[in-house]
Request: fold
Amino acid sequence: MTASPSTGTCTQSAEILQAKCRVLEHLERAPGIRRLALDAPRIVSQAEPGQFVHVLCTPSGYDPLLRRPFSIHYADRDTGKMVLVYEVRGRGTKALAERRPGEVIDVLGPLGRGFGIPETDDGRPFLLIGGGIGVVPLYFTARTLEARFGADRVTFITGARTASLILCQPEFEKHCRDYHVCTDDGSAGFHGFVTGRMCQCLDAGEMCAPPIIYACGPTPMLKAVSKLAKERNLDCQVSVEAKMACGVGACLSCVIKVRDGDSFKYVRSCHEGPVFDAGEVIWE
Amino acid sequence: MASRLSTTIAGIELKNPVMVASGTFGYGKEYQGLVDLNRLGGIVTKGTSLEPWLGNAPDRIAETPSGMLNAIGLQNDGIDSLLADKLPWLRQFDTAVIINVVGKTVEEYAEVARRLNDVEGIAGLEINVSCPNVKHGGIAFGTDCELLGTVISAVREATTLPLIPKLSPNVTDIVRMAKVCVDCGADALSLINTLLGTSIDPETRRFRLANITGGLSGPAIKPVALRMVWQVAQAVDVPVIGMGGIMTADDALEFLLAGATAIQVGTANFVNPSATMEIIDGLEAYLDRHGVGHISEIVGTVR
Reply:
């Protein structure tokens, strides 16, 4: 079996905007998980699945100083609404969690290269793998795949430590043909890692053809998914995460290690990424 | 109106005193669309070396109270890429382009300066002397009087372009370092570069930067920078470009009042890409509010 030629990640947006976006809704979805809906028509009109926005979480003051990057959960071209789903984890997200509907938030975006979604249909199905909060950008991806190729072609596997940490289940179930849960502790669905469930999917003929894989989640998961994709000669794209300052490619903070001939180089996850071809990345 | 903000540094004419600091703005293209490059007084490019530099392993940054530490390791594509791609693109803009020069040896600094000497579209060279000297156990050129003098003299011989050393604040007496540079032929001085620091994560008991130490920037360092600019501006006869934590027009004004002829905006570009534009507008508004005819009238006028 030979893999089809790589689809490549999507290109960066022609124009990056610094927009003042009004908060439409801001609700707790699960303990420590919030859903923020922003009125962002100009960003939404350009956004592609897998891209991110860089958000000034503090309305004023210098602590925390830097913006925080968030994957776009969904961009609704009809209404101009952009949805972010995030985990309240550090000082930036705690400050963001305080912002109320009607307030205005400074947002840079859309940024980076998202998932490369085929322009033309070669019949392959799509296998989306999301670990923990990593499911966030895959919703926009699933919706885009559904609109272009039909939900029948989209399979989603999500993993988390335990059942209560499985996120956005109803949304994914609505827009994917198959939706599979994996938990490390066996409290829901498949007892084990997403790669275990992936092997079942691939071996049991659940996919109509060798799929294109899109993955986002913790680094150990991405590493394992990449390894499996390589063993099975499958086209696989991964969305990575790194500490970031500017978000636009200037500061060279957010680099990851990728292959460069026989050697390696550092490339910007904000500009060349955050989505990379799995074969390019050198996992540490 | 714009002429009220015009200024001159070492023969380089700037439409206003607001420049972007090296390493915070790439080669300009990264901020295209977010910033009107034609409105900037000047662009100081990412530090550029003779050969491409790989940079440090990640993590390369750590956020600190009102600041950030960085240890990028001066990753850059080298002078050939600057000359072939980056500079030709920058030439379309009506702004002063200053190339920041880095090196691991005195010879490397001089060679980069020599190769840039007759290139069209370069207004001047800013010399980053905070690089480690590989022949002297990695000590930064800018923290040793003798090494600093050697590197500035070598670059001076290699170029007729305006020469602007960027001083390291990690020294006992910055005025002494400033005088060494002027004695060796500097036409102006940029200060300050970042302050050396580190950060530890108590949970993991590890340093937050892979490089262990990094350079502190942002509002946290502004009082230190302002003090140094004030001291140096009084002690030397060449113009001083002030930087260190400038986020707003009021911050910029503090540096001008302390004696800086121009200023650079660095970390603020990451937080608010519009910072430079807002600072230019704020300087205009200040002149109106205080009935000042020209920005040069306020330089060094702190009472």
Residues 124 and 210 of chain A are 6 Å apart (CA to CA). The longest strand of chain A covers residues 17-30.
